[in-house]
Known about the structure:
- The chain is an all-alpha fold.
- Among the domains are: about 1-95 and about 115-135, no CATH class; about 315-465, Serine Threonine Protein Phosphatase 5, Tetratricopeptide repeat (Alpha Horseshoe), CATH 1.25.40.
- It is built from 22 helices and 2 strands.
- Strands 1-2 form a two-stranded antiparallel sheet.
- The chain is rod-shaped, with a radius of gyration of 39 Å.
Amino acid sequence: MIAVLLLLTPFLDAFWERDLGALHRELQENRTGEQRELFADLLRLVSCDPLDKLAEPDPLRAMVRVEEARRGAPDTIWSDVLRDDFFRRTVWNPDARNALLWPDEEERWPGEVLRVGPVPSNCRKAAKGAGPLPLLTPELVKALPPEPAARAAYERAILLWRKGSTEGAAAVEVQRLHPSLRRATQFLRLEAKLDPPEGWLPLVAEWPQLAVVTRASAELLRQRRYEEVVDLTASIELPADATRAEMVRAILWARAVALQSVGRDKEMLEVLARARSLPGKGKGQEAIRALAMSALARQPADPARLEPFIGVAGRDAAWTELAQRALAAGNLQTARDAALQLQTASDPRWRAQGLALAGEIGWASGEVKETQAALERLFTQRLRVAERESRDSAALQLAHAIVLREAEGGTHRDALKSQLAWLRERLPTRDAAQIEALVTSLQPAPDEGEQRLALGRIDVVRTPEPPPEPAVLLDLPEPASLLAIPGPDGALHDWFEARGPP
Length: 502
C-alpha cells in the first residue's frame, strides 16, 4: 500500500488540492504511474471533455463515465464542476524567453522541463449528460468496492423508481449510505414491499413527505388507529397542481374514515368535500361520494351539505339516493324530507319517484294512510301519455317495496291487499300481472304449483369500497457523487469536503 501511495502521490496531491494545472503536468510527465488513467479520466471529466469507451473492465474508471452521464444534474458534484472558481487551471511553464525549446522525446535530459499546454474548461458549451441508467448495470455495481457500490445501487434504484419500477431497491445496502440518503432508501424498500408496512410509521415521523404520509395514513387506518390518522393528516394542504391530487385525495379519504369512526361526521363531510374538489377524475371519487352519502343519511336533510356530493346523474338522483339511504338507516325524517324535495322537481319522472318513496316511508313508519295518499297523488297528476310510463313504474316500485316490508312481519296485510286491488284498477293491463303476483305472495299458503316470489329490486346500503391505492410521487435525492477516488489516506473518497475556492 505504501508503494502504491508513493506512486500515486503526484496525482493525489494535485487533484485533491484542486490544482488541475499541476495535475495536467503530472499526467504529462508520468505516463505510466499507478492509476494514471483514472486521474486522466477525472481531468477530462471536470473539463467536460469527452471520455472514450473503456477497452477493458475497470470499475472505478467506469464510474467516471457514469458521472459524466449525469452532467448538469442538480445538487451533485456538477454544481461545483460548473463553477469557474472551483478548480485552479493555471499551468506553470518555465519562462520561454531564455529557454531552449525542442520537441518532446521519450528520453529525458537533466534539467529538462516539459512544456505543457493549457487546461481549458469546455463545460459552458457542454450538453447535459445522457443519463446514467444504461451504464449502471448490476454487474458494474457488484464489481465496485462496498461503499461506492452502495451509492451506485442507490442511484440505479431511484432512476428505476422514476420510471415506475422498484426493481433496484433490494440491491441497496442502507447502512453503507450517507445518512441523508437512508430515508429515501427505506421509502424504496417499503414501496417494493421488501420491508413490512409497519415501517411507514417510524419513517413518517422522521420524514413527513406527502408520499410517505399517504402510505402511513393508509397503514394506520388498516390498523384501526383512528385518532393517530386524525393527528397525522391534520395539516394536509390542497395541492396547487393535479399531479399530486391523487395522493392528497387518498390522505383525505383516510382522514374522513377515521373521523367517521370516532363519531365526528360533520368534520368528515367537510374533509370529503375538500377531497371532491380536487382536480382530476380519480377512481376514488365515487367511493368518497358514497361515504359522504352514507353519513348524510344519518343527519337532518340539508341541501347545502348535499350540494358537494351531487353525482353525474344530477341533483334529483342525489335526493333519491339520500332518501333510500336514510330509509335503510332508519332515519325516517331525513327520508321524508328528501322525498319532499323530489316532489317539487320539474321532471314528472322525479316527482313520481318522490311520491313512491313517500309512500314507502309511510308504510315503514306504520302510517298506512301516508302510503294511500301518495298512491292517490300519483294517479291524480295530469300527465302526457309519454310521462305515464315513469308514473306506472314508480307505482309498481312502491307496490313491490311495501309487499316486501309486509312480508318481513308487517301487521297491515288486509290494508295492503285493498291498496293493491285499488292500484290494479289503475295500471295498464300489461302491469296487472305483477300486481296479481304480489297479491299471491301475500297468501298464507300458496296453492299447489305456485311459489312465493322474490319481488322487485332491493337496495342494499353497504359500506363503500375504499378508493384504490394511489401511485405516489416523490422526488428522491441523488447521491452528490458517484465517483470513487483514491485519497491521501489510502481510502476511496467520493468528492471534496471543502466547497469554497481552492
